[in-house]
Amino acid sequence: MRELPSKESALFKQILARLKAADQILKKFPEHGETLAMKGLFLNHMDRKEEAHDFVRKGLRFDLKSHICWHVYGLLHRSDKNYGEALKCYNQALKFDKDNMQILQDYSLLQIQMRNYEAFNESRLRLLNLRHNNQRYWIGLAISYHLLENYEIAEKVLKAYVDTLKEKPGPMNFEHSEMLLYHNLIIEESGKFDKALEHLESIENDICDRRSWKEKRAFFLLKLERYQEAKIAYEDLIADNPDCYDYYNGLLLASQINTNERFKVEVDKYMQAALRKGVPSLFVNLKKLYADPIKEDTIEKLVEEYLQNLKTCNTFTKSSDAGDEIEEPTAYLWTLYLLAQHYDNKRDTTRALKLIDEAIEHTPTLVELYMTKGRILKHGGDLNNAMKVMDEARELDLQDRFINSKCTKYMLRNNQPEEALKTIGLFTRGDAPDPLTDLIDMQCMWYALEEGECYRRQNNLGKALKRFHQIDKHFADITDDQFDFHTYCLRKVTLRAYLSMLRLEDQLRSHPYYFRAAKNAIEIYLYLKDNPKSANGEESQNYGTLRLPRKPKVKPKKLRLRRQKKVRVNLLTSPAKEDQSKKKVQDDDPEGEKFLKNGLQVEDPLGEAFKFLQPLQILASKRIETHLLGFEYYIQKKKYLLALRALKRAYNIDKENPELHVNIIRFKLEDYLILVSRLEKEDNEKREPLRDSTEYQTIFKVVNTVLPTILPDNTSLEVYTEEFLARNKGSMSHLLAGSNALLQINPDNKQEVTDLLMNSIKDEFLSTRTLKNCISVYEQLKNKLDSSKAEEFKNKCKEWFPISTYFKGLDD
Hints:
Elements: H1 6-12, H2 19-28, H3 33-45, H4 49-62, H5 67-79, H6 83-96, H7 101-113, H8 117-130, H9 135-147, H10 151-164, H11 174-189, H12 193-202, H13 210-223, H14 227-240, H15 245-255, H16 259-277, H17 282-286, H18 293-313, H19 329-345, H20 349-362, H21 367-380, H22 383-396, H23 401-413, H24 417-424, H25 435-441, H26 445-457, H27 461-481, H28 485-492, H29 495-506, H30 512-530, H31 556-573, H32 605-619, H33 624-636, H34 640-653, H35 658-679, H36 694-710, H37 717-727, H38 732-745, H39 750-758, H40 771-784, H41 787-800, H42 805-811
Helix pairs in contact: 2-3, 3-4, 3-5, 4-5, 5-6, 6-7, 7-8, 8-9, 9-10, 10-11, 11-12, 12-13, 13-14, 14-15, 16-18, 18-19, 19-20, 19-21, 20-21, 21-22, 22-23, 23-24, 23-26, 26-27, 26-30, 27-30, 30-32, 30-33, 32-33, 33-34, 34-35, 34-36, 35-38, 37-38, 38-39, 40-41
């Protein structure tokens, strides 16, 4: 039944406000599909999700051709963030009412949310054709063409809209100003900078956002190589806002300064002024220059000279130089501070510690000195003392949240999560149930990430996965939060900001926080795939810290009686008025056991890993780590062609990557042979071997086409690895990769590999001789090769890293 009598039809229109009205209709017409659907929508707003879906599905069963039923079903899916299913429902609704404005608007919002630009363009065109006097539809259509990079038509749409206006906007009209700047952005992104500058200057008197207008003008002048005008424009911007780095970068580009000739003079003046003022961030500002070894050496010589001169005559230059002024004692302090950071960056821990200790002796109340000492100790491998020194820094200024957060991070790095939570809790809201709840509410991702990695190091994989999933949820929430802006920004005509938001969201999951969390989660799930629960039901030794539920099972009747008794006691003992804000929210899974079946294993670890991997493949495809993780995943899935594709993509990004080289050798030696043997098996359902099938021929054609582009057919694996090592002389990470590859190629060739690793003692490896690399070399020597050589290498490491607790701990 579809048509309702007039009385029931009038009641139907009031359903959103009156649920009883729906019940009245359904008493008389229990099979009216649209009423059932609307009742479901109302229940959905009351958070009765399951009932809501049941009513809407029932409504669809009774009226499958109702656009209202399909529209409501789409709204339910949209509220559940299930955008794919919502799109299908809207598509069905439009089949039965193709010109429904509300459905078309909702449909277009989902299309832009899902970044289906072509379909979004079609929907916007239909909306404009149906109502061409609506400003938002004109703007929406222009944006759709812009997103499709069809700049010419986007321009024409905006011009056509302006021509349709009966009254021209007055001067300093904000919406019109934003429209004009958006028009200019379209011209800019089409690559026509001369036309963009001409257009920008023609709209000057209509623009409200003067700062944006000036920035664009300076940018266009620089792009058009009109350097003198660009220089004046950037100087004007710096006068307006002297704290913007982009303006200074623009000014430097416009000035065409040959930095190699003037570098020493300019950096000398800059450092002296900063040391005189006592700028703590001086090293951070200079650090980018260290990419050039010549500039790094120049800075070192200058600062060493400052230190010597300040010590002897209290001046930056020699006393014989004219115009010298006696410096304040703080100049010596900040020079010590800068030089300690410099040597820490060079990983000369002994020299750095000596300098920072002298600075602390000079001024024992300066917080920055203790923080830097903690950082030096951390880089030297002494995490415990680094944490203690950072805690000293925190106690010097208990009101400083930044130092508190730094101390918390060092506690987590030192595997002390309980202490870390207490420390960070000093700066969470006092009315929060507990510090962790407040940190989650505030989306404090650095803490979740560090704590997750801490639990992973402790092998508490349940809690680690819980933290990484929390980070994933934070990013999902940020993605969902953009939905409301699809209509808001068109209504308010904040088009440039809207476009920036879309582009930010498109690369959101390439953010370092998400990438680290996803990488950790994927590696844990791949580990769980290789190390499932043992066959006899006992806990694997690798799950030593994963906790099983210890409470005995309680029969339902006893459990119900126990709960009723507890409620009665609470009613008798609780005060009449309780501060609801301070009620502790009970975490139903504090150990993260829901991420591990029975606290021990995951039902589908590879499926869970792919949930983290897929966003990286879409949004972080330019990072080699994405494809290296993809390779491991596809090998586990036994999808060898996809694994080869991951290798090829990684090779295109950085063919000299150490981990990539090991994976190439592994694929050729193991996975390629597995693929061959699998394909050569006879198919039981066929008489001919699989070798003669089209599938076999296609797979081998792909493999034999792609693999030689990475590993040439006429090159042996030994020669390929030797060439790899020759191209990367002086790199310990490449030396490690080469040794692993040679062991895979010939496990008996241990003496050659041992000699190769012992070469890392030579001075040519000094620049890459990090603590992490040295630990890896030592473990390789000890566990796989020659323990006597491992002992010799360990003694060398103790000289290089005298404060490292790792090598000290080996002796203990």
